[in-house]
Amino acid sequence: LMRGNRQEMRELQVKRGEMTESMYIAKSATLSARARIAMSKFRDGNVNMRWSQSYSIKSSAARKLDKQKRLKLKGAAQPVRLSVFEPLALAIRRQQEETHKKPARYGAPVSKVQQTVRKAKMQLERSMGLEALPDTKAGDKTVKSHAAAKAGRRAKQV
Q1: CB atoms closer than 10 angstroms to residue 135
Q2: What is the spatial distance between Cα 45 and Cα 90, in angstroms, rounded to a whole number?
């Protein structure tokens, strides 16, 4: 395919001296366009042939595996980039992290019992007075209430 196109270009270059500059530019442009069209047709035929081979009689699981293999091919389908300047490697990494996203880990997961106990402590602390109840996170010490909380309780008592 390419050899034939190259040969035609060489023949055109040999005849370049016999024709005007505009004629040479027009003919070289048409030859390059023909070559691009031929390569595109060849590429499309090749892709269609491989595509039809992959969709022979297979199970859905096998089709899913084939799709994953095709998507893993480098350059087959590039991930959407945040900007024009984002490198491909970072975009691929971001895409992989999004597919395997895990929940954020901020301390230990809070159980329902722990939430109920904390809520009851807060209500009891508010109803008692100026001193707070022992806080488990502060090492079972008596924790001073915040100054604004104290002022609010004093205003409520009046």
Answers
A1: 14
A2: 33
User: Quick one: DSSP state of residue 86?
Assistant: S
pTM of the model: 0.33
Q: pLDDT, tens digit, for every residue of 25-81?
A: 999 999 999 899 998 888 888 888 877 766 666 677 887 887 788 777 756 667 778
Alpha-carbon gap, residue 10 to 27, rounded angstroms:
12
Q: Write out the DSSP string of 45-67.
A: HHHHHHHHHHTSS--HHHHHHHH
Question: Which residue has 């084939």 as its token pair?
Answer: 66
- Count CA atoms closer than 13 A to 59's CA, side-chain side: 3
Task: Give yes or no for a contact between 144 and 132, defined as CB atoms under 8 angstroms apart.
Answer: yes
DSSP 8-state class, residue 103: -
CA distance 97 to 100: 5
Q: Percent helix, strand and coil across the chain, each rounded to 5? A: 65, 5, 30
Of 156, 107, 100, which Cα lies nearest the Cα of 127?
156
Alpha-helical segments (H) within 85-133: 88-99, 112-128
Residue with tokens 């096998």: 62
